[in-house]
Amino acid sequence: MTLLKEEKKEIIEKYKMHDADTGSSAIQVAIMTSRINTLNEHLKINKKDHHSRRGLVTLVGKRKRLLEYIKNSDLEGYRKLIKSLGLRK
After folding, report:
1. Positive or negative: CA dihedral 12, 16, 20, 22
2. Dihedral over alpha carbons 21, 25, 30, 36 (to 10 degrees)
3. Architecture of domain 5-85
4. What distance in Å separates the CA atoms of residue 89 and residue 82, rounded to the nearest whole number?
5. What are the CB-based long-range contacts (under 8 Å, 24+) for 69-77?
6. Closest C-alpha to 29, from 78, 72, 89, 88
7. Interval 58-63 mean pLDDT
8. In the predicted model, is pLDDT for residue 78 greater than 80?
9. What integer is the mean pLDDT of 55-83?
10. What Cα–Cα distance (Å) separates residue 44 from each residue in 39, 77, 78?
């Protein structure tokens, strides 16, 4: 359910804004989206895993707040991020 180092590096490379960028809001949202997708697959198999379900709900809430921040600060970047991640908005 966790991301491998290689997967995380690929996400950082794809969404970084400059060379030393490792933790901008866009990168955090992309990493959270990847984790949410893996948790979703896990919960399809393990329907009674309520501890992981709670973690999923908290991750979705964090991602929602970060997306709202990005939307308020950089609307064009928000639209591009939503489109590249394939989120419904």
Report:
1. negative
2. 140
3. Orthogonal Bundle (1.10)
4. 7
5. 69/25, 70/25, 70/26, 70/29, 77/26
6. 78
7. 98
8. yes
9. 97
10. 9, 32, 29
Q: Give yes or no for residue 1 having a pLDDT over 70.
A: no
| Of residues 19, 17, 10, the one with CA closest to residue 70 | 17
Instruction: Give Cα separations from 2 to 42, 49, 70 (angstroms).
Output: 11, 16, 25
pLDDT tens, 10-42? 999 999 999 999 899 999 999 999 999 999 999
Instruction: Identify the pLDDT of residue 3.
Output: 81
| Domain boundaries along the sequence of the chain | 5-85
Q: Which residue has the higher pLDDT, 1 or 6?
A: 6
Angle, alpha carbons 6-25-70 (nearest 5°): 145
User: Which residue type, as a one-letter code, is found at position 33?
Assistant: T
